Structure prediction request, 127 residues.
Amino acid sequence: QVHLQESGPDLVKPSQTLSLVCSVSGGSLTTGYYAWSWVRQPPGKGLEWLGIIHNNGTTFYSPSFKSRASISRDTFKSQFSLKIYSVTPEDTAVYYCARERMDGYSGSYYLADLDSWGAGTQVTVSS
Prediction:
């Protein structure tokens, strides 16, 4: 049974880097028809898909975050991470990591394909 857990600081200052880690157990970052995604939910708003890292290490980002986001992985630790640079208060949100089902992938990503989620972690951007 796959389990995901987000970790990282709950407070980040504006202009600094938001850095989170997702620890994965019961699943492989490098094999199978799955990839690994980051999603967030700002207060009072809907879910926002941020980006993904595939089992071969290839990454893809939402156009809204491509210029300032980075996803990487440590396969030895079974972890993948998210960095968002130059954050503002609008980056305040609950951040989730999730497993994304890739069977049947045809060029687009859908929230409906996220089949396992971490509990989420609140990150506040404030001075």
Observations:
- The two ends are 39 Å apart (CA to CA).
- The longest strand covers residues 93-101.
